[in-house]
């Protein structure tokens, strides 16, 4: 089991101005719904899922995803974004137990 | 005579249609195809994590993996393509899991009997490290050579185990994956890892159970799930058991399958249902 909250972000190495690029990410997270029972003890496993994923480009908000317990384990997210300048893409995400993480990637526009 | 010829040609045409249908059936299910086209899946998070462990885990000797094998695994490129093979320092044929454990206990100063190390290794380190090391050989062809007498012996043992029927269901690997290969169990097609060189995508991420698995996990789990092995292990007395991790039994099967896949290109991490 990989560490909770670890993410991999993939952006194109270079893009031309005005191009629509694809940004992909995978977050390692158990995404417990809170409805499952532990097979050994019979107790409910407490809910633990990502509630919000925020995409920022150069400090400016691109989009926000409000996710819930219905999303699969180790979820994959992808967005398409138009780039006009080089900069840093920052992705902030948090879960319902108070975990907060950040991940960033550089995009070079020529 | 003419009629016979027509009949024969009809039969041939029928056969062609039939084989075409078979070929189409063997294609990937569409959802799996879509996932592969995305170009990224949770398996890549394990490579990332393995890379961190490669540089950060320190044994009692103060050594990390990077201090012997070079930054970013320089000296390990292509190593996975030759595994499992005979290692002089371990004095046995080892696959990737066994090799990593051997390195950790022998050179990094971990105690093999330490409970904390055992737990950490099995639950945390083994799979990410194995995935990372395997991914360094991406794009290279598998080339398992049987130069050493121990390797040859192991290969023979593996071939024997492949067809050996064991357990409460009296099953062997070969029944599903050689004799019935190409047919289906419920909705799943049965692949032939020996003929079709299917070793290329291991370790793989399985999105059915949302777990990353090495081949060792896969083989052992097969023995538990399909062969109905019990909890005690004595291959002569009691046939019904899950083979212990890093045992010759598991490694022999791995060697047999991987040798059969010689020449195929490695693509790690794989994605399976």
Automatic annotation (TrEMBL), chain A:
SUPFAM superfamilies: E set domains. InterPro entries: Ig-like_fold, Ig_E-set, SoxZ, SoxZ_dom. Residues 10-105 form the Sulphur oxidation protein SoxZ domain. Gene3D superfamilies: Immunoglobulins (2.60.40.10). It comes from the Bacteria. This is Sulfur compound chelating protein SoxZ. It holds the Pfam family SoxZ.
TrEMBL record, chain B:
Its cofactor is heme. It is found in: Periplasm. Residues 1-23 form the signal peptide. Substrate binds at residue 218. Heme c 2 binds at residues 173, 176-177, 222. The active site is at 222 (cysteine persulfide intermediate). The keyword Heme applies. GO terms for molecular function: electron transfer activity; heme binding; metal ion binding; oxidoreductase activity, acting on a sulfur group of donors, cytochrome as acceptor; transferase activity. Its EC number is 2.8.5.2. GO terms for cellular component: cytochrome complex; periplasmic space. Heme c 1 binds at residues 65, 68-69, 103. Keywords: Electron transport, Heme, Iron, Metal-binding, Periplasm, Signal, Transferase, Transport. Binds 2 heme groups per subunit. GO terms for biological process: sulfur oxidation. It is an enzyme of class 2 (transferase). InterPro entries: Cyt_c-like_dom, Cyt_c-like_dom_sf, SoxA. It catalyses: L-cysteinyl-[SoxY protein] + thiosulfate + 2 Fe(III)-[cytochrome c] = S-sulfosulfanyl-L-cysteinyl-[SoxY protein] + 2 Fe(II)-[cytochrome c] + 2 H(+); S-sulfanyl-L-cysteinyl-[SoxY protein] + thiosulfate + 2 Fe(III)-[cytochrome c] = S-(2-sulfodisulfanyl)-L-cysteinyl-[SoxY protein] + 2 Fe(II)-[cytochrome c] + 2 H(+). NCBIfam families: thiosulf_SoxA (TIGR04484). Belongs to the SoxA family. This is SoxAX cytochrome complex subunit A. It comes from Hydrogenivirga caldilitoris.
């Amino acid at each position: 089991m990989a560490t909770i909250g670890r993410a991999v972000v993939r952006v194109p190495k270079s893009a031309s101005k005005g191009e629509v690029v694809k940004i992909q990410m995978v977050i390692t997270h158990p995404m417990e719904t809170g409805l499952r029972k532990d097979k050994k003890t019979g107790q409910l496993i407490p809910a633990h899922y990502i509630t919000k994923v925020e995409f920022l480009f150069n400090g400016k908000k691109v989009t926000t995803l409000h996710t819930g317990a219905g999303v699969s384990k180790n979820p994959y997210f992808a967005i398409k974004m138009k780039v006009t300048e080089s900069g840093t893409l920052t992705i902030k995400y948090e879960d319902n137990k108070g975990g907060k993480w950040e991940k960033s990637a550089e995009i070079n526009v020529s | 005579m003419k009629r016979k010829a027509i009949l024969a040609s009809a039969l041939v045409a029928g056969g062609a249609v039939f084989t075409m249908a078979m070929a189409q059936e063997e294609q990937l299910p569409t959802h799996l195809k879509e996932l592969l086209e995305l170009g990224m899946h949770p398996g890549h998070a394990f490579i990332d994590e393995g890379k961190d462990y490669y540089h950060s885990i320190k044994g009692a000797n103060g050594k990390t993996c990077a201090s012997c094998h070079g930054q970013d695994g320089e000296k390990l490129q292509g190593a996975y393509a030759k595994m499992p093979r005979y290692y002089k320092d371990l004095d046995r044929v080892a696959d990737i899991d066994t090799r990593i454990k051997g390195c950790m206990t022998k050179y990094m100063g971990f105690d093999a009997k330490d409970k904390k190390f055992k737990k950490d290794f099995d639950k945390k380190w083994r799979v990410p490290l194995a995935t990372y090391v395997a991914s360094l050989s991406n794009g290279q062809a598998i080339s398992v050579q049987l130069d050493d007498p121990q390797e040859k012996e192991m290969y023979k043992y593996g071939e024997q185990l492949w067809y050996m029927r064991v357990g409460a269901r009296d099953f062997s690997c070969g029944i599903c994956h050689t004799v019935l290969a190409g047919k289906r169990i419920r909705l799943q097609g049965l692949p032939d890892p020996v003929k079709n060189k299917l070793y290329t995508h291991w370790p793989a991420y399985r999105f059915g159970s949302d777990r990353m698995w090495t081949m060792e996990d896969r083989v052992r789990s097969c023995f538990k799930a399909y062969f109905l092995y019990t909890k005690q292990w004595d291959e002569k007395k009691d046939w019904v058991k899950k083979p212990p991790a890093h045992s010759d039994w598991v490694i022999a099967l791995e060697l047999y399958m991987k040798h059969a896949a010689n020449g195929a290109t490695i693509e790690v991490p794989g994605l399976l249902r």
